[in-house]
């Protein structure tokens, strides 16, 4: 049986108190909401914080507000609440769909949007027990010096695999952060860097408090996910896309992949190809080809990385077909 290491548990009542505790704890502190990612990582000794700061007693983080400007979703709002909320289903059906594919119903009852947005990067060589990793001499992401995916690589190639993120980026969502230096807001897309270890751009001690999604204003989005099983599994490929039309033609497009790099991958060339088009079959085929060229998955998840590259194009084509079909 895998057991948690010793730690001190904190349960602050406000964001300010949580940030202060984290500032005192420094690198030995970790925020936790649902704990569906952190606690398994602690059991495998991938993360060993001595101070765990629970966000479950902070009412501000559990608020879900929708108005004429869009949606403001607290970082501790449960995933299951979002997938069932009639307002989210009506205004942002692609987000509800993406969230409904995360793990299993019991874990979606525990997991939160903030936890999924900040999900740790994953890898076949990293997401193993301590003893398994010790047997191969650990890896660069924790306790070792080699990336076993590509031993000559100067950086860790663990992969981003959050289902909500491609849709949030496609919808132009923004993240609200609160840290020792105050509050700031950034595009969700700007939260990530292509580095399996330092995969977040947040400053030390910053807490994600809210995700804000602008009103749809003509945008239509979709999401598709590739995994071995129909539930529980993380995506080995996820595609989120959104388009905005004017007079029947695409005025703007956003296409985002997860599961193929250490950060969400924005397909700018494919997006540009779609602008001015009506998503006719040749347009979709060209965008899909550009997507397959841009996707460079590595041997760090399930399935062959060569096949996953090919399937990236097929999934982009399928998502774009979703956007071209009657509602």
The outline comes out as globular
Distance between the termini: 48 Å
- The residue ranges in which pLDDT falls below 50 over 5 or more consecutive positions are none
Order of helices and strands: EHEHEEEHHHHHHHEEEEEEEHHH
User: What fraction of the residues are assigned to beta strands by DSSP?
Assistant: 15-25%
Structural class: alpha+beta
Radius of gyration: 20 Å
Give the name of the CATH architecture of the domain at 216-327: 2-Layer Sandwich
CATH class of the domain at 216-327: Alpha Beta
Rounded mean pLDDT is: 96
How many beta-strand segments? 12
CATH superfamily of the domain at 216-327: CO dehydrogenase flavoprotein, C-terminal domain
Helix content: 25-40%
Number of helix segments? 12
Q: What is the spatial order of strands in the main beta sheet?
A: 4-5-8-6-7
Major β-sheet profile: 5 strands, antiparallel
CATH fold-type name of the domain at 216-327: Enolase-like, domain 1
